[in-house]
Write a structure and sequence with these properties.
It contains eight helices and three strands, in the order H-H-H-H-H-H-H-E-E-H-E. It is mainly alpha-helical. The chain is elongated. It starts with a helix and ends in an 8-residue tail after the last strand.
């Protein structure tokens, strides 16, 4: 990845994440303060969720900066896995927060505690929904542009906060019409939503750390390029993996043994260019050229 592009990507990550931190500080303080005054379990839980957003914002800033350091002798494949580990930290934070919120709501329901916090819950929840949904849309769009897994995870954390505020909004409306358990049920729904998002983030992060192959569609594109190239008689040992914002591809190809080194190098560069053009992420490609003894194609 070009160092200038990496630096500009980092500035964009910093900018959107700092904006998210400002919004999260404001929302967390507003929810927890108001929730404590009107005794709303759901609003306090939603405020704690916003505090967890702050932790993930910091994780994104640290891990994305480290991941975009250029490759060196100790990390010849780059530092992309640091961003993946940052993604896992976000997932773990979400899992703990979701579990805590869910347990608190279940405990309140078990003791049959009724709450009627009033219209302030509805107003604050509505503000939170609008603010967090806007943050989600902007963060997700940037994550796709610069292929940042930790920023993508943080975008979904914003969405989970928006959805949890929707649950709080519904619970607040139910309490206004006289249903005393609406607030706790909303808190339980918030916890379940957060746990579900955490599960997806952790699953995707573990797949990447376990050297899982890239997506099937990208592998199909690579295979099609190899099959269609006239100079490639056979190919095998295609290996792929994703490290941070980059893909790594290794493949062995069989070619006419009478081709010169220059000719072989020339068309392997052509193959690399075709793969780079058709895959959505930056690709590091290693092509091993072997002489084909039999000229019949087995592609």
């Amino acid at each position: 990845m070009d160092q200038t592009d990496s630096s500009q990507d980092q500035k964009k990550i910093n900018s959107i994440t700092i904006w998210g931190m400002v919004v999260n500080i404001f929302l967390a303080a507003l929810k927890i303060l108001a929730g404590s005054i009107v005794k709303s379990v759901a609003l306090i839980a939603d405020g704690i969720h916003s505090i967890s957003d702050l932790a993930t914002d910091v994780t994104v800033l640290v891990s994305s900066r480290a991941a975009r350091k250029p490759a060196d002798t100790s990390h010849p494949y780059g530092h992309g896995k640091i961003e993946t580990m940052g993604t896992l930290v976000i997932g773990l934070i979400l899992l703990i927060v979701g579990g805590g919120i869910g347990w608190s709501a279940i405990n309140s329901l078990y003791h049959e505690e009724k709450f009627f916090p009033g219209p302030v819950v509805v107003i604050i929840a509505l503000i939170s929904v609008l603010a967090k949904e806007l943050l989600f849309q902007f963060t997700k769009r940037l994550a796709r542009q610069i292929h940042s897994s930790s920023l993508h995870a943080n975008a979904w954390h914003h969405r989970s906060d928006a959805l949890s505020s929707v649950a709080v909004l519904i619970g607040g409306v139910l309490s206004l019409v006289g249903f005393g358990f609406g607030d706790q049920i909303a808190g339980l729904v918030v916890g379940i939503m957060i746990i579900a998002v955490a599960g997806k983030i952790l699953f995707d992060g573990m797949k990447e750390l376990s050297e899982h192959a890239i997506d099937r569609e990208s592998i199909k594109i690579i295979a099609q390029i190899l099959n269609n190239h006239q100079q490639v008689t056979q190919w095998h040992k295609l290996r792929t993996r994703k490290i941070g914002a980059e893909l790594f591809v290794d493949v062995h190809i069989h070619v006419d043994p009478n081709l010169s080194v220059y000719e072989s190098h020339k068309f392997t560069k052509e193959i690399e260019a075709l793969i780079q053009e058709q895959l959505p992420l930056p690709v590091n490609i290693l092509i091993h050229v072997e002489p084909c003894i039999q000229q019949n194609s087995n592609k």
